[in-house]
Design goal:
Blueprint: H1 4-13, H2 16-49, H3 62-76, H4 85-98, E1 104-112, E2 115-124, E3 127-128, E4 140-141
Antiparallel strand pairs: 1-2, 1-4, 2-3
Helix pairs in contact: 2-3, 2-4
Length: 154
């Protein structure tokens, strides 16, 4: 297990914007986890969607968006409290939205030994940015973007 000193060295070696991503992730992931538990998926997602998409000068390259996804994943390993793929992915979408980057939350399901297994990830320009490129091959993916009311009780 890496020591605190080696972690700090890795952190200080990051560029300024990368450090902002890491700090924001460590701060907001527990809040997103709590928000999902308190409000539920539909209401929390609707609340997040009210935040306007920030203006952006240009669409970032896929590699840049994927690098942000990797930073969020790495920071999530050190976050306080439980972190799920849904929490990470919702946070990443929110972070990108504040930067004017259009992304899409994707949710897929599969059966593993008779049990339903669900997974969430983020796509930018139709490609995963916080998971392996072939993630959609392992799950039955919802074909369209999930509206805030997708999982509401009738």
């Amino acid at each position: 297990m890496p020591s605190l000193i080696s972690r700090l060295k890795k952190y200080t070696a990051l560029h300024r914007e990368q450090r902002r991503v890491v700090l924001a992730t460590l701060l907001f992931l527990p809040l997103f986890w709590a928000g999902l538990r308190v409000l539920g998926f539909s209401r929390f997602r609707a609340w997040l969607a009210r935040r306007p998409l920030a203006a952006s000068g240009q669409c970032p390259a896929h590699a840049e968006a994927a690098a942000t996804g990797e930073l969020v994943n790495r920071a999530a390993r050190h976050a306080l409290g439980p972190v799920t793929c849904l929490t990470r992915s919702m946070w990443l979408c929110c972070w990108l939205r504040t930067r004017g980057v259009v992304s899409e939350l994707r949710i897929g399901v599969r059966l593993v030994h008779g049990r339903l297994d669900a997974h969430a990830w983020v796509e930018h320009a139709g490609r995963p940015i916080n998971d392996v490129q072939e993630v959609a091959e392992h799950f039955a993916v919802f074909d369209e973007s999930l509206s805030p009311g997708s999982f509401s009780a009738p």
